[in-house]
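REVIEWER CHECKLIST
Item 1: Sequence provided? yes
Item 2: Single chain? yes
Item 3: Sequence as submitted:
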Amino acid sequence: HGHGWTQNISRAVWQNVRKRYFEKNPPDKTGNYKCALCNKYIVDEPVTLDHIIPVAQLGEDKEKWKDHSNLQPAHERCNRLKGGRKKAGTYKIGDTPSGKLLKEVEL
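Item 4: Structure as written out by the authors:
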């Protein structure tokens, strides 16, 4: 199983991106991450990383797939439901549990 876009990268590279993301963006004071898609806590299940702007829509900027500003924590089911679509609305890119905000984009 896995995402179609990951076929072009090694599992080790993606695992390293995930590891660095979670190191730089620790969970909040409850010890859990909040799903950026449904806004509920992710408890007792794996935390996936959703690409805010889907990899398929990055165009020439393919390296952005590993940019932390384009990643956000999500439940596996929410991430799967979103798939390669952008969710409508304003995204706070880099709005992390630590409260860091890089920029807002309208999708």
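Item 5: Key structural point noted by reviewer: Confidence is low (pLDDT under 50) at residues 88-107.
Item 6: Recommendation: ____
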